Structure formats: structure tokens, C-alpha cells
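To fix ideas, we close by showing one paired sequence and structure record:
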Amino acid sequence: MRKSILAVPLGILVIFLPTVVRAADVTYSVSQSIGAAGSVTGFITTDGSTGTLGTSDIVDWNLVLNDGTNPTFTLTGSSNSQEEVIGSDLTATATQLLFNYSGSDGGWFLLENLTIGDFGPFVCWEASEGCSGAPAGASLAAQNGDDNIVYTTLSGEGVIGTASSVAPTPEPGSLFLLGSGLCGLAGMGWRRFAS
């Protein structure tokens, strides 16, 4: 009986602490020109991780693709598109989402409507090889109409977006207060059933 009373507050701590200390999502504003008349504008949201990012670190996006010829197309999160990150060229800091166009691992960051590889409307940041139908050497490419791919050749590390919002992260004092409260509850339960 005594062990079960102590297990309840500890179980609550184990369940909720990872949620409380998870990094806050970060939304990066994107506004990039592509080719002579193309552009990509909107936002990309990550899970708040910094350093090298993978596919699972991208949690949401809303990007308007303009190829300069066709009507614009909007890639809206997982509702009409998918993401793919290959290699180690996509990175993030607290204030910037970055891509290393000179990366040697052939990496890319691709957002594409409906399915990766179906040559639907897409935007692609890539290091050395054209992705999703873009020509070799295209570092930043977009397509929102049939066979009309606009692209730009870039090198070095470039900024994809700048942080526009950061969800609040619990301060260490709040985490200490939560832990103290749970320990107090455990202690009260222990005393009550120990006597």
C-alpha cells in the first residue's frame, strides 16, 4: 500500500516532465526570391531543435510558391504536402533556419505536394544534385505549374528563414516548483500511510 501511494506522484512526474521540458516550437518567416521572377514566402515551424535537423523536426509549414508564370500554389503542412530532409545540411539556431548549399553529402530539404517524388508543386533547398526534377546545380528550386521549374544557384550557408515567434519555454524555477510540489505530495502520502 505504501509503495502505491508514492508511485502515483512519481508516475505523474514521469508522464508530464518530458512534455514540460520539451523545446518550444519555433516559427521561421520565409521570404526568398527564385530565378528571375519566382518566390517562396510564408513560414516553416520546427520543434525547437537546434543544430542539424531531420524530417521529424519540421512540424508545420505554409509556403506560397510563385514561379512567375502560373497562379501561385500554397503548400500547407501535412494537409496537402509532405516534407523530406536528407543529409546534414539543414540546421537551425534560435533565430535562423539555415541550409548549407555547399554541403558534400548531397543533402536536401524538400516540401512537395501531395507525395514526395510525384513532381507536384514543390520547393527544394539542395546541396549538390537537383532534387525532384530540378536541374543539377540548382540550389533553390520551386515548381507550381507543369514543367515550369524556377531555380537559383547558391553556395555556402544561406538563411531560409528568420524566427518570427517562439512559444514560451518553462523557466527552471517553474520546473523546480513542479518537482517540489510532487515531492511534497509524495511525502504527505508517505507519512499518512506510514503511521
